[in-house]
Amino acid sequence: MTGNSSSSRLDNATLSLFQNTNTSVAISLVYLVVVAINLVGNGFSIWILLFRTSPKTPSIVFMIHLTLTDLALGAALPFQIAYQLQGYQWNLGPNMCSFLTLIFYTNMYCSILTMMAIGIDRYLGIVRPMLFRQIRRRKSMAVVSCFLMWGVVLSVLYPLMTTDLTFYIPELHITTCFDVLKKDMLPNQAAWAAFLFSMVFLLFLFPFCVTVFCYITVIRKLASDSKTAQKKRAIRLAIIVLVVFTFCFAPNNILLMTHTILRLFYEKSAYQAYKLSLCLSCLNSCLDPFIYYFASKDFRQKLRQIVNLHTLSSVDSTKMECKESTLYSPHCTVEGQNREHRKVCLTPSTSQLKEPE
């Protein structure tokens, strides 16, 4: 987004970016990797969440919502790849440009808000389990929250839905898509300031602060408990979420604010750095399945069953448990005298084992 005037004259830095083949190829390669990991990882995740996980708790609803937005991004990125490999020439018209741009940015900000919602759900379940028990268990509340997220994001991004985001550059004879925005997209600088403030502070900084507070409080709460496994998972989940915020979302939003201020007030540009930061923002869709793994015990158990990683149903693990036991369990039998009286434990299925959330 260069925020240029209504004339077609661009600054040299932006023009050089459009002519830099190496940059466009490098970004396209990153997007190709993201698409492959995104579609495989999130396709597998949505199958587990929709068809193998029950009941649909609020956390599962949030994860389904996050997975669907990630899959939408994975479906939209091939168009961005083709656009860049064709030398930033957009051939699909302004409506398709607006639609795909909206998918790109709604994925980013809906992901941020959904991670905040998952963090709040963890906070309510661990720190305030009794006070918010009824609210937290209502699946309808999670569904309504997802619709509210979309309402907030689409309200902030409304200018992108009502503007022709294509731009013809006569110097290069190309038509770009969302790489050049006119200053008259919004009526005045106050409107630009409100648009920028809403994107950076309302859709990024505020959710980030809430998420950090929730996970720090959860970790402090679990630190005094004896459930070390649960504490380790909570710490890993917090680390993954903070990594996504720090390395995927923060650079893009900071550079967005920096570039827009430079263009509006100083006629300078940081667009090349901002363009590269968009690659980082897409990586979140590859990391989200790890969030599901550490945030949902049901998802964890179903995944272990599918990939044959049952913690207790493995023959090797049960043999070891029986061997280390000092007392003979009534569920253990002797399997043949010619096998040195090896014991095999008949353990229940991992799907029947429940651990605290």
Describe it:
The chain has 357 residues and is mainly alpha-helical. It has two domains: 12-306, Rhodopsin 7-helix transmembrane proteins (Rhopdopsin 7-helix transmembrane proteins, Up-down Bundle); 315-352, no CATH class. Helices cover 69% and strands 4% of the residues. The chain has helices spanning 12-19, 21-52, 58-85, 93-126, 133-137, 139-156, 158-161, 189-223, 228-266, 271-282, 284-295, 297-306, 315-324; strands at 166-169, 174-177, 332-334, 343-345. It has a two-stranded antiparallel ribbon with strand order 1-2. It has a two-stranded antiparallel sheet with strand order 3-4. The longest helix has 39 residues, at 228-266. 35% of the residues are buried. It is a multi-pass membrane protein. Belongs to the G-protein coupled receptor 1 family.
